[in-house]
Input
Amino acid sequence: MKERMNRIISIFISIIFTILTMALVTSTAMFALDYFDITDIPEKYSIIGLMSKYDVQFVKGVSESELKDEIKIQPNKRDVTRADNGQDYEYDPDILSRLSSGSDYGHKENNQPRTESNVFYYNQLNDYAKYIYDEIYNNYENLKSGTYVIHFNDYFNDLLHQENGETILNDSFQLAVNSLTYDKPELYFINITKMFLYTEKVSFAGIVRYKNSIGPAHDGNYYSEEFTNEENTIDAINRVEERISGIIDEANKQESDVQKIRVIHDYIIENCEYSASKTNNNVYNAFGVLHDGMAVCEGYSKALKLLLDRIHIESVVACGTGTNSAGQVESHAWNYVFLDGMWYGIDSTWDDPIILGIGAASYANTHKYFLVGSEMLFKDHVENGELISSLSEDFKFKYPKLSINEYRER
Output
């Protein structure tokens, strides 16, 4: 009897030991999978989530009303979407001066780097900013939800362990999202000032790891004005695409590229009015031109680029200042277009004059800034390459060299 009891106890202990061993192996495996991001473990089963300290930080964009106020107060600056990470923010000028070269810290390779010729700003970013840009644009369809969160997991973990790593990442994020809106004006339904960069700090057993993601504020979205949900957004995009198709069909009937460009230029100035509306923020994007028929210079130039992209003509939205007919210096945007091996300027905003009284503007007035050279354009336009005023002293995008003379048809 005693021997039988000992055997039962021995079996029971073996079973308990086996269960504990399996539990230990399973929990260790789950921890490893979770910690090294091999797979996603649900939060309620995450050992790291139960035992770790989270420090969630985010980069907050400036509101669009603040952007317009800053433009109004400082007419020599361009649109500002500077971020504030909630802490005292100090710049290292050496970091920003290296952004254009991508040297020193720009060692990460992109999964799907851009190969198009029409991504002028992208091509001047560091590799971290390019990665952020790529991940956002590669999720174009998902962004239509207005709430989709892009996860980078621990891609920037090594960077954030470096001295000044947080500054580099924050600056890269700002440069990436701003560059994206100028290179890819079809993202007009996104308000980048409502996109946040989140940094999750996970501490476990003395080891610190960082995970990053981009998404909206809590319980919010990153839609531009007039876009309220995914169905509404898709419907609006479809309406704009129908209009674009009609414009492109008309442009493609022309024999030469210059004639195609003229059709697009003329459509914009004939169907859009200049409006610095304080109630419609879409005046700053291509949607304002192609749907609402109202825009400021930024909207004019982004719409022109979007349409030129569709007919495979390379162009750039240029930023700087312009001196108007009253001698006032104001923030301004226009385009550079590559045609027959040279770059030329187009200012569709200033080719759309306000008509006083009865009559119509002459062809000369509506094409004064159509494919002009630097000799003409730089009389009243000054390029500065500043997309973000907070970075403007240390980093400016460089623009292509223009032809001296205006384009002459061959």
About this structure: Residues 51-215 form one domain. Residues 51-111, 355-359 have pLDDT under 50 and may be disordered. Residues 105 and 120 are 21 Å apart (CA to CA).
